[in-house]
Amino acid sequence: VSIVTFLGDGRCGKSTLASRKICGSDRIIFPVGDTGEPVTAGIDLCVVPSWGAGSLVVLDCEGGNNPAGAIRSAVDLVAMLGSTLTVQVVWGQMGEGQLQQIGQALAARDRLMTGTNKGLPAQRLLLVVNGCHLRYSAGHLAKTFLEVHTGSESARNELRANIKRAYEQIHFVTVPHEMDPAFQDKVSEFQRAVAEHCSPAALAGSSLSGAQV
User: Fold this and answer.
1) Per-residue pLDDT at 147
2) DSSP per position, 1-50
3) What Gene3D superfamilies does the record point to (predicted)?
4) Is the pLDDT assigned to residue 10 strictly greater than 90?
5) SS3 letters for 77-116?
6) Quick check: 211 pLDDT over 70?
7) What is the phi-psi region of residue 152: left when phi exceeds 0, alpha when psi lies from -120 to 50, beta otherwise?
8) Angle, in degrees to the nearest 10, between helices 96-112 and 155-166
């Protein structure tokens, strides 16, 4: 069983990306909307055959940072506890808030687990910029996680250190606007990244069954 969680701000296209991951087309699996009102409440879930043997569980979380909707960090926490890959989505461009949302959820998780993650499967993180309008360099992810902040910004180093400690791998992809000539290629790159980095849930080297998960 492989488990992928989609989280991020409201109205950033999480549900659309999650649907594209499942069916590889424009077909919409998870509900979406075109207004400022929130659509997903809590966590929507879909189980499909995995790329190899077993099953893929896709968790589509309600968005945060929406003044018209609820902002419940417990939703992200519950989804992250069981997932092997967290896909954190923002719209337009990468920002510090993207890291802060992950850091807040990790802090809540650590409090719940009394400072240990021994009861969790190995986890990976995929940062996604949806509707991206910038050209990021190949080294941008590494630069993002440099712990070089001083003075009043030194807390940003701790945030980065905590994220790197929590995930065995961190990756980064962008998906441009649908009118961009590179859109389909970038969607395919995103789909490959999820398939490659969403590993089966395992503890102590042993794969977990659906019932165990």
Assistant:
1) 97
2) -EEEEEEEBTTSSHHHHHHHHHHSSS---S---SSSS----SEEEEEEE-
3) P-loop containing nucleotide triphosphate hydrolases (3.40.50.300)
4) no
5) HHHHHHCCEEEEEEECCCCHHHHHHHHHHHHHHHHHCCCC
6) no
7) alpha
8) 60
Residue 193 in this model has a pLDDT that exceeds 60 = yes
Q: Among 36, 38, 170, 158, which Cα is nearest to 100's?
A: 158
Whose tokens are 């649908």? That residue is 178
Provide the pLDDT for residue 188.
Answer: 93
Asked whether residue 206 carries a pLDDT value surpassing 80, the answer given is: no
Q: Which CATH superfamily is domain 2-204 in?
A: P-loop containing nucleotide triphosphate hydrolases (3.40.50.300)
> Do 48 and 54 contact (CB within 8 A), yes or no?
no
Q: Which two tokens stand for residue 69?
A: 């909707």
Antiparallel, parallel or unpaired: β 206-207 and 124-132:
unpaired
Return the structure tokens found at 168: 């065995």
- pLDDT value at residue 125: 96
CA dihedral 131, 20, 42, 55 (to 10 degrees): -140
Strands 55-61, 206-207: pairing is unpaired
